[in-house]
Amino acid sequence: LETRQPLLEYSARGGTFDIMPVLQWDTAALELLRDPSGPAKASVALVNFLDRPSQTIDVKGYCLDASALAPLESQTFGILSRRLTSQLKSRGLEACVRLPGGVSENFLIIANRFFDTVVVKSYQEHWIGSAPQPLADKRWFEGHITNLKEHVSFDKLVVELGTHSVDWVSGSPRPETLPFAKAMSALAQNDAFARLVPAGNTQATYLDAEGLQHQLWLLDAISAHNQILTLKKHGIQALSLSGLGYEDPGIWAVLDQVTRDINLSPAVLENVLMSNYVALTGSGPFVAPLSMPQ
C-alpha cells in the first residue's frame, strides 16, 4: 500500500487516473503452473492475496504481467486467465493482462476473451546471443499491429511502445538495456552520434576506451513519433509507454502534439534536456553535490 501513497496524494490534489497494481510471476511460479494442478494452486494463492486487508482499496483492478508465461501451453494460460479474471470480477475489479510482443495468436485470443484490457509490448526483446538489430523495425511493427487487430478487440487493445536503448558490446553475449540518457552520455563521451536509419529506429556505433565496439539501437522520440503515426493509421488510440524513467524526454512533447493532430515541430527535438538524469563517473562513492545543474 505504501507504494500507492504518492499516487493517492497526487489524486487528492486533483490528479485523475486509475490505479491497477501489477501481478508478476517469478520462475518458481512458472514451474508451478506447468504442473496439472498448478492453476488451481495459483488461484488459491490469489484469493489469499486479495483477501488481505487493503489489497482492493483505492484500486480499479489488477494487471497480470504475463511476460514470463509465454513458454506455457495455451491451455494452461487459458485456465489461469479464467480463474484470475473470475476472482477479480467477483470483487468488482477489472482485469488487465500485459503480454510480450512475440506471444502466440492463441495467447492473444485467450487474453481477448477473459480480460478487460490487453496490453501488448510492441518491441522485440533480446537475450543472450542475439545479434544487434532494430528494437521495433517499421516493417515488423506494421505486421505486429496488423496481427493484434485481427485477434484483440479495439476497445481492449493497448499498444505498449518501448522507450529504452539496447547496447551490444563486442565480446559480451548478453546485450545491456540502457536508459536513453545513459546511452546519450556514452555517445557524448566517445565523440559518437546517433542516426535515424531506414528501419525507423535510431542507431549508433562507437569504440570505447578499452577498444570494445558498442552497437546501440534506441527507441527515442523520433521512433515513438513514427510508431504513433502508424497506430493512428490503423485507428488505434490506446497506447502506453514501457519503463518510465528510461525514455527520451522528447517523447512527452511528441505525445502532446501528435495525439492532438498537431504537426510535430522540429524545435521540440532539437534540444533534449535531461536535467533529472544523474550519472556517477570515475571511482569512489558519491558523497555530496558541489552544485546543482543550471
What does the secondary structure layout of this molecule look like, with pairings?
Blueprint: H1 5-12, E1 22-24, H2 27-34, H3 38-50, E2 61-65, H4 74-90, E3 94-99, H5 105-114, E4 117-121, H6 138-151, E5 157-161, E6 165-169, E7 176-178, H7 180-189, E8 195-196, E9 202-207, E10 213-218, H8 221-233, E11 239-241, H9 250-258, H10 267-270
Parallel strand pairs: 1-2, 2-3, 3-4, 4-5, 5-11
Antiparallel strand pairs: 6-7, 6-10, 8-9, 9-10
Helix pairs in contact: 2-3, 3-4, 4-5, 6-8, 8-9
Can you tell me about this structure?
It is a single chain. Helix 4 (74-90) runs parallel beside helix 5 and helix 8 runs parallel beside helix 9 (250-258). The model has no long low-confidence stretch (mean pLDDT 87). A six-stranded parallel β-sheet has the order 1-2-3-4-5-11. Strands 7-6-10-9-8 form a five-stranded antiparallel β-sheet. The chain has ten helices and eleven strands. By secondary structure, it is an alpha/beta fold. It starts with a helix and ends in a 24-residue tail after the last helix.
